[in-house]
Amino acid sequence: MSQPRSGFEQVNGIRLAYRHWPAPPAAQAPAVVLLHGVLQTGDGMRHLAERLSSDRQVLVPDLRGRGDSDRPAGGYDPATMAADVAALMERLEIERPALIGRLHGGLIAYHLAAGRPELVSGVILGDANPEVSAGRAAEALASIAALPRGFASREDAARFYEQGLGLPPDRARHDIPSDLEALPDGQYRWRHDLDIVSRIEAAAIPRSDWQVLAQVQCPALILRGQRGEIGRETAQRMLMTMPRARVMTIYGSTHDVFLGPGSEQALAAIQLFLYGLDGGES
Question: What is the residue range of 213's domain?
Answer without folding.
Answer: 5-141+194-278
